[in-house]
Amino acid sequence: MELSEYVQRGCQMLADPGCFDLGAFALLLRAAFRSLLEARADEAALDHPDLKHIDPMVLKHSHAALATCILEAGKQKADKSTLSTCLEDCKFDRERIELFCTEYQKNKISLEILLGSIGRCPLLITDVSWRLQYQIKTNQLHKLYRPSYLVTLNVEKEDSVSHPDISFNCTMEQLQDLVGKLKDAAKSLERATQI
Amino acid sequence: MLLELSEEHREHLSFLPKVDYAVVAEFGRIALEFLRKGSNPKVYEGAARKLNVSSNTVQHGVEGLTYLLTESSKLMISELDFQDSVLVLGFSEDLNKLLLQLYLDHRKEIRTILSELAPVFPSYHNLEWRLDVQLASRCLRQQIKPAMTLKLHLSQDGEHSNQVLQTDPATLLHLIQQLEQALGEMKTNHCRRIVRNIK
């Protein structure tokens, strides 16, 4: 895990008991996780009374350093020993390393989901609806007498933004073709997981 | 079910017995050509010169024949009903036979052409798929995230379009399950009863 000089300096301030006692450190650590993982994080986290005595510049710098550290660890899927080595380099003591690792472990999965959801991908199918109708006649053509399906795919863009549905008609044969191809896809997926 | 032929329509068709059967057959060919590709007034003028009649007369003759064929195909009337319907025109037996043959030979094609006129959504054309596993991204390393990329081809008014979509394994299985239910629905007693009774 590589951290920039700025982040390292921020972490070193966090490691300094003269700057942050253990209580303030724990408070800031939790605030950093919350601000990354909760959509509506408490923006006033740094205004906590127990942090009042710390210079706002130092507080901001340390908070940014913590957040970067957490994201970098999440991105690399750092294990405990990697994390410990890195924090030791920033002069963290045992207690602070332990606290960081515990908090990290607790939020690891949410952190991975968050990081995994960033980036571009094609439209995602989330669900399908269908309607079966029996066509009888149109103004141009009588005695049609054939089943017809209307299939609607619900789709969304990355980060769960909704997108207009995709609707199309198909005959019974076309729907059988579609299902056949999806089944082929599912079969090869199943085979791939058995390797 | 018999065809109802208006006075005007009968008048337009009354030109047919005045020409050779070969000309009627040619009119039939032109009528079908126009159904396939749209009308072309130049053809009327050429034919009118050869037959020594006004191009309007030819146009009415061809249009009358077109209407006769599309209306019968639209209603899908039986052979017998077609014969009875054209009987009122007072044509010779041979001409009636020729018209019947035109109708029977081209009914299927005309119905296909007519079916294209109905308002429709885009329709399914094809599906291609690709199985991917996402291994890493800028924001997250060491991933194993299977994804099915689908390319859905649709067609509308003869034009093809396609859309690239993606889905995860669980959703893929859900899609298959839902669409199989949709197919199965046609075999239920409810649907079979409706299909049997609507004739």
Automatic annotation (TrEMBL), chain A:
Q: Which CDD domains match?
A: Commd3
Superkingdom of source: Eukaryota
> Which InterPro entries does the entry link to?
COMM (IPR017920), COMMD3 (IPR037355)
GO BP terms: namely: sodium ion transport
COMM domain location, by residue? 124-193
The family annotation for this protein states: Belongs to the COMM domain-containing protein 3 family.
Supply the name of the protein.
COMM domain-containing protein 3
Automatic annotation (TrEMBL), chain B:
Could you tell me which InterPro entries the record lists for this protein?
A: COMM, Commd2
* All residue ranges annotated as the COMM domain in the record: 123-190
- Pfam families in the record: COMM_domain (PF07258)
- Protein name, please? COMM domain containing 2
Q: What species is this protein from?
A: Sarcophilus harrisii (Tasmanian devil)
Gene name of the record: COMMD2
